[in-house]
Specification:
The chain is an alpha+beta fold and 269 residues long. 28% of the residues lie in helices and 19% in strands. The protein has seven helices and ten strands. Helix 1 runs parallel beside helix 7 and helix 6 crosses helix 7. The chain binds a DNA duplex (13 and 13 nucleotides) through helix 6.
Length: 269
DNA sequence: TAAGTATGTTAAG
DNA sequence: TTAACCTACTTAC
């Protein structure tokens, strides 16, 4: 379930589980075996997340760069680690627990310089307190592309995926098809602020919840809805259901190779 | 058992 | 714009 909140949460969990102590590293599947051997017995001394990229620091040995892609996962468990199940690219194991990485788009050992190069290709991340939203605004306010595409462009903004883009646009009532340069500065400031709030909540909860208390099915007097991705949301993959607020059917269409979801009634700004 | 789907990205054309 | 890739799960037959 990888949008930026997942990756930031993973950084925290890795630090808590393995930080400051030597860790055993193996690649049961074999595809990361040579690098795992270099890492085995080293101390995890730093973790970082930028957008959907996770970095695990091992001193002079370098950084493990992980990108989960569409369906990569990390599962944590308590020691002793059982025999690996399925395709485990990387297993880290400490005295108290272990973590299994499966199906990542990227898992590679890189240098500090290579890590810097990756950062330079990414826009500001709402979950990195020092990141400056002005950098994103400079690009958005000059672009003819629809805001829904810009929010997903990791060079513009890092960490937002298909769920957060759909939900934040709904919450602000902004049409996904508006061109970036037609947004007002006030609207952009509100988008960034809402992303910061939503994504921080996502890190804390480990899932994406975007529905305000006054709009829950309970509060609206509607039957409870069952999510297939774990969180309570307004429009993402809600096409078989009416909009929670106005009961218009939620609409979907492909945009830049991804499915976009929005409410044509509530999002007319 | 096979096909389809997924919260993502890159490279080829 | 399209295909390819990484894996697991759900749905169809």
């Amino acid at each position: 379930m990888p949008e930026g909140h997942t990756i930031h949460r993973l950084a925290i969990e890795h630090l808590r589980a393995f930080g400051g102590r030597p860790v055993r590293a193996t690649s049961p599947q074999g595809r990361f075996a040579a690098s795992a051997a270099l890492l085995d017995g080293r101390v995890l001394d730093g973790v970082e997340a930028h957008g959907k990229h996770l970095f695990l620091g091992f001193g002079g040995t370098g950084w493990v760069h992980v990108h989960l892609g569409l369906y990569g996962t990390v599962t944590f468990g308590a020691a002793p680690a059982p025999p690996p199940v399925g395709q485990v690219r990387l297993r880290l194991a400490g005295a108290d627990g272990y973590a299994d990485l499966r199906g990542p788009a990227a898992c590679e050992l890189i240098t500090a310089a290579e890590k810097d190069a990756l950062h330079s290709r990414l826009g500001p991340d709402p979950l990195r307190p020092a990141d400056d939203p002005e950098r994103a605004w400079q690009r958005i306010s000059r672009s003819r592309s629809p805001v829904a595409a810009l929010l997903m462009d990791q060079k513009v903004l890092a960490g937002v995926g298909n769920v957060y883009r759909a939900e934040v646009l709904f919450r602000l009532g902004i049409s996904p098809h508006r061109a970036g340069r037609d947004l007002t500065r006030t609207e952009w400031d509100a988008l960034w602020a809402d992303l910061v709030e939503l994504m921080r909540a996502g890190v804390a909860a480990g899932r994406i919840d975007t529905v305000r208390a006054e709009h829950t099915p309970e509060a609206m007097g509607r039957p409870p809805r069952v999510d297939d991705h774990g969180g309570e949301v307004y429009v993402y993959r809600r096409t078989t259901m009416p909009c929670l607020i106005c009961t218009t059917p939620v609409r979907t269409e492909p945009l830049a190779a991804r499915n976009l979801f929005w409410c044509p009634t509530c999002q007319q700004r």
